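A quick word before the example. In earlier lectures we treated sequence and structure as two separate objects. From today on, think of them as two lines of the same record. Here is IS4 family transposase written that way.
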Amino acid sequence: MARTVAILPEGSRVSDYISLGVIAKTFPVARIRAILTAAGKGSIRERDLPAHVVVYYVIALALYMTSSYREVLRCLLEGLQWLRDPSVAVKVAGKSAISQARARLGFEVMRQLHDEIVAPIATAATRGAWYKGRRLVSLDGSTLDVADEAANVAAFGYPGASRGASAYPQIRFVSLVENGTQVLFANQMAGCATSEVTLAKAVLACLEPDMLCLADRSFFGFELWSLARDSGANLLWRVRKNMRLSPDKRLPDGSCLSRIYRCERDWRHKTNGVQVRVIDYRLDGVTGAEPIYRLVTSLLDHEEAPAKELAALYHERWAIETSFDELKTHLRGARIVLRSRTPDLVRQEFYGLIMAHFAIRGLMHEAALSADEDPDRLSFIHTVRVIRRKLTVFAAIPPSTTPRLS
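And the structure line, produced from the sequence above:
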C-alpha cells in the first residue's frame, strides 16, 4: 500500500515543532563541516542540498515520520536561512534528488558525529545523576522495525515469531543511558539476529571510571563483567537468583562477598575467581514482584555502599525504558516503520533519530538546571510544546545565540 503523503500546517517550519536552533546548537555546523571534510564528503560545489544541510535534514527527517520527504525538506530549508544566502528563494528538491543526496552522505558521517557529540551531559548540579560521586548509567537494548525491502531483509533479517512470519525486518540496538538526564549514548546497532550481548561488548567499552553501571540479568556473564570492569567503572548487575555464588564472608548489612568464575573448571577448583559482593532482597507488598532479587556489585565496602541503598538504586535501571519509549513512541511514532529502503540509509536514519533525542534531552537538562529541578520531573512532550511557542525567535537566528526558554 502506498504511503499517504502528509503535510504540515500551512506556513509551518520545522521550528514550529522542534527548533532547528536546538539541533544546530547541539550539533554545530563547524563540527559537521570538519567531519565531512575529513571523510571526503564535503560538497565540492554548492548543490541544492549541500552535505552539511543533508546532515540536519536526516535529523529532522527522523523526527517527522508521518510527513513526506519533500515536506520535511521544505520546512527545513525555510528554517535554515542562516546556513544559506537569505536572498535566494527556497528551492525544494524532488524525492529522487533527496535520495541521491542522502546516498552521497552515507551513514559513516552520521555515526562519527554521533560518536563525537552524543555523550553524558550531567554536571555536579544535576539531580538524580550521581551516587556518591559516581555517574549512574544503565545498559539495555531494543529493536526498531524497518521498511520491508529485499535489501533490508538481507541486511537485518526478520525477527522470530511464534506463528507465521513477522511483518517487517528489524534492527537491534544496545545503548547506555545516563540515568539522571535519560540521554542515550554509546549506541550500537546491527541486524535482529545479532544478540544484545554481542552488541553490549562494544557499548561497555565506552564506560568511564567515574561511572556506576546498572544492568539486567540477561547481560550477566564473566566475559561481559570483566570487559566492563576493565573500563574502571563500577557495576551493579542483576543475576539469576539460583546462580551458584558461595559466600566467602557475611557482611553486617546482610550482603556477602563471593567470587565469579570464567568456566566450570575454575569454579570446581576455585581458581582465577573475581571477587564480587552479593545482595539478595525481596520487594514486600509489590504486586507481581519476584520472590527474590539477586544483585552482584563491584562495590565491596558495605559501609560505603549499604545493601539497602544499592537494592533501591538498582531499580533506577528502568530509566532506560523511558528513553526507549521516547525514542520509539514520541519521536518515531507508535507503529511507524523507519522509512529508508536501503541498509545504509536505515543506519543513517537510526543515528539521526538518536541525535534528535539527544538534542531534546539536552534542552531539558538545561531547563532543569536553571530551575534547580530533577530532569525526571520534566515532560518530554511538554518540552517539544515549549519549543513550538518559540518558532519566531529560533527560526530567525543562527544557533550561536539561543534565547532563554520559559
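Notice the following. Residues 14-116+390-394 form one domain. We will return to this example when we discuss secondary structure assignment.
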